[in-house]
Structure formats: C-alpha cells, structure tokens
Amino acid sequence: MQHSIATAVALGTLALGTGSLATAADVHSFSANIGVVSNYLFRGLTQTQDGAAIQGGVDYEHASGFYAGTWASNVDFGESLDLTIDFAEETFALDYSESPGYELDLYLGFSKAINDDLSFDLSALYYAYPDGRDLDYAELAASGTWKWLTLGAAYTIYGQADDAPGVQSGEALYIEGDWYLHAGLDFVLPYDFGLGLRGGYTDFKYNDGGNDYAHWGVTLSREAGDFGTFSLNYEQVGRDTYDEDPKVWVGWLKEF
Question: What is the distance between the alpha carbons of residues 215 and 26, in angstroms, rounded to a whole number?
C-alpha cells in the first residue's frame, strides 16, 4: 500500500494512579498523519490526472498487533472513464462520466513481528468514492517482511460497477477476483536518508489479461525531525495500454 501507517502516539485513560495510566498507554495507541504529494499514484497509475493531492489518516493500534484506521485523499479520474469488460461471457461498456472528488479508505488488520528480522501483516481494506459513481471495491491482503525485503498479495473480494446490460436502475454488478502482487526493498542510508525499490503486477479477472500490467518505482526519502519526511519518487508502468511516461513526483509526510 502507498498509504502510511503513522508513528504511534500513546493515549491513556483516567485510572488509579500513573501506573495504570502507563499500562493503558502501552496497550492502546492512536496516531495521525497528513501529507502532500505533487501526484497521487497508486500501483503505478495516477489518481489525480497528474495533479497534486492532500492526504491524511488516523490509526488505532492494540498491543496485540490488531490495528484499524482510515485514510483520505482528493482524486480526479477525469471527465469520463470508459471501460470495456468481459464478464460471464458477455462484453459490455461502462461509462463513468461523474468522477469522484475524493477517496476514503477504511482498513483493519493484524501485524506481528516473529523476531527481529521477520514480520507479517494481514488486512482487509475498503476503498470508497462516496461522491462519484459506483467505483467502491474491497480487498484482502497479506504481506511478509524479512529484514529489507517485503513480499505481498491483495485479492479483490468485492467491486462495484453499474450501467451493465440487464442490471436494473439502482442495482449494481459486483466484480471480484483480481490479484495484485508486489515486492519491495527498503534500505536505511546515512544522514537519515532512506531508499525504497518496489514493483508490482495487477492481474485482472476480466478481459482475458487485456488490461493486466506491471509497474515499478524508486523512492529516496529523508527524515527532517519535526518537519516530517520528504521524498523524491519515480514511477513507471510497463504496458502501452496505460500511460507509459515516467512519473517523477515529490511528497511530504508528517506523523503525529
């Protein structure tokens, strides 16, 4: 995921003395993040027509490893988004003439470190576009990290699309079965710099692979203390069905 999991901020409850307060803070933690990017790219594809975005989220984490949160960003899919889909041996076109103005994500999961080098994460995510046509979808995701290497996969369990043949007004056609596979390398560099290398592949269930694509990217970041983290990023898609031009964008993230 491109979304940030913010640094935890302890939240205590009024209890019997400072000892109980400290224990509660260790068990429950809340955090928030805010960021600005010159281009919001998700899995290699721009979500803002190559424009800037303001983003932010709130997270809760339990000491057991359970977490939940929400994250939002402005988006712009253009005046129209035309898709041709093969579904149940029938081809139909979808025309989304009303682009949503923002994305709202909801997620929960469980993350645990097995030892100092190995950890895993299991999550469920819902991507919502409340002010546009029916584009919502949900995924189940899993990833594992060993030292500087992360491998993961996400599976679409629910997706919305309307205006399909045979679908009554007010109803929706639900499309599921897409896979997203990804890998990343993250290194800590001197002087508070970080280097991230990533790649991913989206395998759509529909259209017999006609829209499947790979993407890759590089991030150079630097922590600046109370001023947050700044990053310089490169992204590219490896299929001419999409915009193959290299994307270079900058970002800033502040965690509380």
Answer: 39
Give strand ranges (E) for 100-228: 102-113, 118-128, 137-146, 149-161, 173-174, 179-189, 193-203, 213-223
Parts of the chain with a pLDDT under 50:
1-23, 81, 96, 162-172
Beta bridge partners of 104: 72, 128
Q: How far apart are CA 137 and CA 175, in angstroms?
A: 9
Please list the alpha-helical segments (H only) found in the chain.
17-27
Rounded to whole angstroms, how far apart are CA atoms 42 and 239?
A: 16
| Model confidence pLDDT, tens digit, residues 104-124 | 999 999 999 999 999 999 999
* CATH number listed for the domain at residues 9-255: 2.40.160.40
Q: pTM for this structure?
A: 0.81
Radius of gyration of the chain (CA): 20
Question: What's the CA gap between 50 and 58, in Å, rounded?
Answer: 25
